[in-house]
Write a structure and sequence with these properties.
Elements: E1 6-7, E2 18-19, H1 26-34, H2 39-45, H3 51-64
Antiparallel strand pairs: 1-2
Helix pairs in contact: 1-3
Length: 77
């Protein structure tokens, strides 16, 4: 899966995941959705965002939560 709308730049928001190099973080977008804002409400509040940016933010967040925990099966050192 490509995340071409998600950018990382140490000079922008401390290198956090942002939308297309803007000072809008993925975490902000995900938080807005989690708190009940619709795509239309987010786009009205942040007119420089696009619906695809919101979708990409949610896809990236889902990707990050897809980690697997594997039990330790070796002998401790």
């Amino acid at each position: 899966m490509m995340f071409d709308r998600i950018t990382f730049d140490p000079k922008i928001m401390g290198g956090r995941a942002c939308i297309r190099g803007m000072r809008i973080t993925v975490s902000l977008v995900v938080s807005l959705v989690a708190n009940g804002m619709s795509v239309q409400e987010i786009l009205a509040a942040y007119p420089y965002l696009e619906a695809e940016d919101i979708k990409a933010s949610l896809q990236y967040a889902a990707f990050l939560t897809n980690e697997q925990i594997r039990p330790f099966s070796g002998t401790p050192a």
